[in-house]
Amino acid sequence: xxxxxxxxxxxxxxxxxxxxxxxxxxxxxxxxxxxxxxxxxxxxxxxxxxxxxxxxxxxxxxxxxxxxxxxxxxxxxxxxxxxxxxxxxxxxxxxxxxxxxxxxxxxxxxxxxxxxxxxxxxxxxxxxxxxxxxxxxxxxxxxxxxxxxxxxxxxxxxxxxxx
Length: 163
Description:
Helices cover 4% and strands 37% of the residues. By secondary structure, the chain is mainly beta. It has a domain at 59-159: Carboxypeptidase-like, regulatory domain (Immunoglobulin-like).
């Protein structure tokens, strides 16, 4: 099993080295990373870590309509990976968004992948991370593929969980 964890790391310094007109390599001096073994006799292997910084992010944006094609301004959009092994608490592959004052939503920073996107009238806090709930929402969702740095406009219909 592969477990991915995000850990905030205090950064002491950041130096950029221009590699071309469009990319830079960054050297990051990390103040301290402590990994504590579970048992006293355990050894920790030192490994190199590659950090990739990018200003190119993915974006899903759009609006939601009801079953009569009228704009909806109060809803929650949930985007989640089609691969259920990527579901879990605080995963990068599940995101929610609420509409702005104009009734439009925007989801940014999803990793490139295949997603289900569904618009619902209400989502209980944390419900978007429940695998059983995501499984139910799959049949109501629109399928979307996001490539690296891609922006996609969506026109969604408000789903009714009783459908």
